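Note to self: keep these together.
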Amino acid sequence: MKHYKIYLIAIVLTMIHRMLLAQDNIRTYPLEITFNKTSSLIFPTIIKSVDRGSKDVLAQKAKGMGNVLQVKAARIHFPETSLTIITADGILHQFTVNYADEPNVLNLSLDSTKVRAWNDRPILFENEMTESDFQKHANYILKSRRQLKFKNTGKYKVALGLKGIFIKNNTIFFHVTGKNTSNINYTIEFLRFYIRDNKRIKRTASQEVEIKPFFTNVEPEEIKGKSINEWVFALDKFTIPEAKHLVIEMFEHNGGRHLFLPIKNRTLVKARALP
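Structure:
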């Protein structure tokens, strides 16, 4: 009996030791920021969420860059605080943030292999897929034969098209193309998805419900002249209500080549299941 109790105590102590080691695997980085300069944190994958320990830290994603976080101080000489970022590969990044008149580093790049060594247990998101899962599905979609009758809209030698729709559990993937046959580069202001009314009645606002992708294989930034870009967007599963349709909209920065691609429900329900 005595030996049995000793054995149980040893098991409990071993479990506690492993829990402490697991906690230590999440490394906390020191980060210095200042009031009149911006620091950039460059992550190996797309940023999913940002939590600031206090309002003394200002943080925003760099425009057109899903993996770059810009950080600066809201006031000088603030007390020590924290910053926590979760990226799409399921890794949690923790920073201890302090004020400095002249930070040692303004651009910090986090190497993915080192981060995984410190935190080898990825966080699962609501759909239980990580960045590597989404990238795997995107690669499969890009290599797949076109499954839909190609839908496209164009203006001034620029076209926006839909090559396919795929589904995996509660996620819908859209295979979208941008084609530029002109000699002028097309700089993308934004590319978005939203549901709108089929008919717009005069003096009545047409309600638009935006559906934001939570993953794209490549951020849509520019379509160079005489070239074609292909993107895969992942969105939460949805259907289109009666008398409404989905719109994929692409706007040109400082230009007039704005494109709208309408998608009806009968096209959406043709989504092919991913393996």
